[in-house]
Amino acid sequence: MSNYTEAELAQDLESSDYKYGFYTDIETEKAPPGLNEGVIRFISAKKEEPEWMLEWRLNAFRRFQEMEEPDWAHVTYPPVDLQSISYYAAPKTGPKYQSLDEVDPELLRTFEKLGIPIDEQKALAGVAVDVVMDSVSVATTFKETLREAGVIFCPISEAIREYPELVKKYIGSVIPPTDNYYAALNSAVFSDGSFCYIPKGVRCPMELSTYFRINEAKTGQFERTLIIAEEASYVSYLEGCTAPMRDENQLHAAVVEIVAHEDAEVKYSTVQNWYPGDKDGKGGIYNFVTKRGLCAGDRSKISWTQVETGSAVTWKYPSVVLKGDDTVGEFYSVAVTNNYQQADTGTKMIHLGKNTKSTIISKGISAGSSHNSYRGLVKIGRQAENARNFSQCDSLLLTDHCGAHTFPYIEVRNPSAVVEHEATTSKVGEDQIFYCQQRGLDEEKAIALIVNGYCKEVFRHLPMEFAVEAQKLLTISLEGSVG
Amino acid sequence: MISIKNLHAEIEGNKILKGLSLDVKPGEVHAIMGPNGSGKSTLGNVLAGREEYEVTDGSITFEGEDLLEMDPEERAQAGLFLAFQYPIEIPGVTMNTFLKEAVNAVREGRGQEALSAIEFLKMMREKQSVINIDESLTRRAVNEGFSGGEKKKMEVFQMAMLEPKLAVLDETDSGLDIDALRIVSEGVNRLRAENRSFIVITHYQRLLDLIVPDFVHVLYQGRLVTSGDKNLALELEAKGYDWVKETFGEEVPA
Amino acid sequence: MPITAPKRVSVPAPPRASVAVKPADLKDQLVEQFGDAQTRRLSTDTPYLRTIREEAIKAFDQLGFPTKRDEAWRYTNLRPILRGGFEVAEPALVPADIDLTPHLIPGLDAYLMVLVDGVFRPDLSDLDGLPDEVTLLNFTEAFEQEPQLTGEHFAKYADHTERAFVALNTAFATDGLFLHVPAGFKLERPVFVLYLRHTTDAVLASARNLVIVEDEAEATVIESFRVAGGTKSFLNTVTEFYVGDKGHVEHYKIQNEGEEASQFCATQAFQGGHSKFHTVTATVGGRLVRNELEVRHGGEFVDTQLHGLSLLEGQEHADHYTLVHHAQPNGHSNELYKNILDDSSELVFRGKLFVHPHAQVTNAYQSNQNLLLNDNASAVAQPQLEIYADDVRCSHGATTGHVEDEAVFYFRARGIPERRARILLMKAFLSEVTGYLENEAVQVYVDELVNVRFGA
Q1: CB-based burial, A447-478: b 16+ in 10 Å, e otherwise
Q2: Beta-carbon separation of C387 and A418 below 8 A
Q3: Each residue's pLDDT tens digit, C115-137
Q4: Do C415 and B102 lie within an 8 Å CB cutoff?
Q5: Residue among A195, A182, A276 nearest A222 (CA)
Q6: Tens digit of pLDDT for each residue in C394-406?
Q7: Which long-range contacts (CB under 8 A, 24 or more apart) does B115-122 make?
């Protein structure tokens, strides 16, 4: 038996390439670097925003200036110079497209490389896609089909112009601009993102998908997504992201807000594959994201599923506020860190209503010299009769110089609650590897198999197409590991 | 002994028992058979007083008293014993402690003196001649890590210790192999007495070969649809529950 | 071993604050009083001790009292406790006459050291029959008599530069247990340290213990906290344990001071290779109790067992902060804390398992279980794993809930009244922890405290 161990796997992991690290040569229009009121006015003007939106942004900016960058996460990175970032970059070929034919062919090739078929093939897959490159939404497919169902799915910049009342009512209602440092920054400078409105009783006829890509150098991406599910509606929403390989660190500070009314259900899935930096930890995206859903109406349900493989530093806690009675919140997460990546991710489940239920399944896999932390809060309020939570947080260590950490916070203030938290940390079992080898698998395949099996519980909550992509991503990371 | 009249009960809004009536006299053994979902376990739980089950109509008189007015522990003290289908595990409480508490609570309820530790141990020994259990089990936590057979044997042993007037066996045969079934049945048979009645709830006839009932009732859709002697059980075994469904399939008006 | 009572110096008590004191002002006051305390202790403190005290007060001055903004104090608010202010305790002019009987553990055969408001009382203590090999002294005099041991071990485990209350204790504590058990010696009888509160003044009472159990030696130390008078004082105790290679220490702490008294209590252990440190904390009362328990593995194949139970009612608040440093390979730790919260009581449990790089083949388990009995009670759990080695098996679990209805029903179906059923189930819940009390007298005593609390 060969002596393959995690140490070798770790070494092999270092050499696996980031296949999305190309740069698309498209003419862009870019704001000069710097963060000030002028830039915010510039963005707002570019987007032809109404006055109230500009005021909202400026207000957020003023509050932002009083705030300090949080330092409690288990991550370290040099301070981000917000003044060196450009807050607006748009492909120059006109931001509006009547059909896909008008889209810059270079851009289309980009999407092809990304594996996003925004062509008619997508009809078969039944997915409507909104693509946000750098700061601007460049293409939204299947608008017509969706419109027939009454679903609004468009860039948020468009929604601000076309559906100002809806945006005004909901923007910042789940994540107020003052929620945290990066949410405040996003509120001030967000450039685009997706807006999604599912009317009462409508089951969205297809999965909605947004692809985010940072393309330009020295830009930040600050997209903002708002999803509103009216009474008894349903939507499944997918989010993917990539960025080119660059030596510098780029900032991504997004905000996603979800509101679910009575009996509504929202499923939000993310495969996050931002550029993680090279094997020495140079470059990569700082991914500082605020995502939160509000189960506003009784019996509503919000489910977050995420597969996090990219970014140099991740700081992200998709959360659910269970305000209505009998509401359900779920969080399923796989986070893989390698080389010098750092991830501090988890969730918050805030139980306020009666008979509320939440489930947390988190799988962390650490390789190289990376650090992978689960941080989560389960809070059962005084009025939350019969609340239930189950959390399972498992960590897998592949080398002896990486770290795996678990920081749950459990606050229970109602005696009828039942809250259970379990966590384990271990390495890949040598007996498991041996068992696979004995059945004819090589070590690399064995580990890929075991790690995939380890993550199965989370993958099965992803839509089929995404699950396949997620598995591939994991396998790619483990590819070429035995020499 | 017990008189159940027009009993209606539901759980979480689901109506399970829809007008069940049954009279049991001292010393009688009544078997209640029925297909899955007919309301068998509900009957046992309602008799023992589980709060999740709501009695919406009807009455139960036990030894001349209104059973439905009594707390679960009062029912036990009055002499009603339920052998659970799934006895719960209670870590940290030894079977000895549990039984001593139970025996003395029941004795107190009956106006008898509490047993001293020595008297209690003596009683334990005596009852072990009725149903033979491994003594080490009594030193372990209640039902914790017990096999299915051990749990059921222990239920019958508890019955012997508490000397009830009416014992309700809720699918005591489920999950038992033939040897365990024989031991449990022998224990029950030894406890049969002139002034002690049994309600044996079961899905299968095989238990009734070992505990021979005086009466057999078929429970279907929340009511006793037919009654007879032990031959009814054999008939049911031969024809299967489909026969019950065909014969009594339509909802019978209450 | 000779033991002398501390010198009693008469100092008039300064007027007490009638308005709420700000923590920062209280800090300044205490720092100011340090000068007087140093002067007062000129004849008792060795230069070495004086230097460390200087370091400590400097650190305290910089740190100030912890606030809820400090991650480690996020759920424990000190402000209501500090509001009344307190003065540094000074020995009473005439030692109070106290009847020990209600405060002893029946049937416990132990060397008894009594500290009243943090001051050693040889007249109440009973240290007869101590083997010649063993050294037992009052804290301050140990520096003079055992300069080498104190120099080697004192303030080496409990960090007086980063932790405000440890710093405060280091600056002010004069009395407490110094115990040295030489290599290979097994001290059969336990050492029982009884802390009594007597004063009715709002004073800061401090006590400092240092227990050195050398290689292959064994000792049992029992601490019990009781009120024998007033409850306005704030008690700040710090105990350092050194357990040599293959040494074994059993440590039990019983905190039973009612609903009014508040305390900070730190236990710091350093373990050599193949050693055992077993500790059980029973907290059955206290307005605000903050326990910090830290263990560091200094060798391989170390066994650490940390167990605790809390039984709180009224407005009581207990905060158990535990940290195990797995700094060497092949270490094992097991932690179990069980808590029952009634009325408006609050419980905070924070347990961290820290596995250092190269601490391979670490096995660490941690479990925290809470039962809430009342709508107003609350429990916060923060079980944490911070792991930097890969060949480890670590897990933690935390559950919060109520007494299981199914189990209660099973009892009731056997004739046991509901109230009795609940008591039996709660006692069973706690018995897993009390089972770790290997001293029978202590176990019976704690069981009885539990019985009394349940009115059973």
Answers
A1: bbbbbbebbeebbebbbeebbebbbebbebbb
A2: no
A3: 999 999 999 999 999 999 999 99
A4: yes
A5: A182
A6: 888 899 999 988 9
A7: none
